[in-house]
Amino acid sequence: MADHLSDTTRLQGERWLKHYYFIRAAFSVVWVALAFAIGQHATAIGAALLIVYPVWDALANYVDMSRSGGMRENPTQAFNVFASAVIAIAVIVVLSVNTSLVLDVFGVWAILSGLLQLATAVRRWKRFGAQWAMILSGGQSALAGAFFIAQAHASVPPAIVKVAGYAGVGAIYFLVSALWLSAGQLRRKFASTH
User: Fold this and answer.
1) Angle, CA 36 vertex, CA 35 and CA 37 arms, to 5°
2) pTM of the prediction?
């Protein structure tokens, strides 16, 4: 009975994770499209998009953490929620004081959130598998953060374009993770019917 409950819990968690990754990918695709289509041409919209991105990340991590056992079981996500919220505030401050620092702020955030995502994916690997794309994404995010900081004061292209490129790659990783979990579910379903 306990094994059946743990299998059911694992399958529910895996189903949630698949939906979560699809939602994260879809949001990122829409955000990137808006950043390229409007954000790079309209300063106020670009600024709003730069604020929305870490706010969304904080909210998404909070919902996932809550659905995945809460703060105690997910300390890396709890810290990621806090870090993303602080970064959103920092982006607001920097945009009102010195816009040339916005890539520095995003760079710090990309490094920190990337390492936290990597740690979350490693922890989840034991339970769900299929986390290799999230591990790669976390590592890539940390590297991108270092590049953001290195390029922070270059004038071309604008920060929104650099962040949009980063978000686009993130969308691909979320989509790959969702598809990988979906394929695993289909394989198990097929195996159980034959």
Assistant:
1) 95
2) 0.86
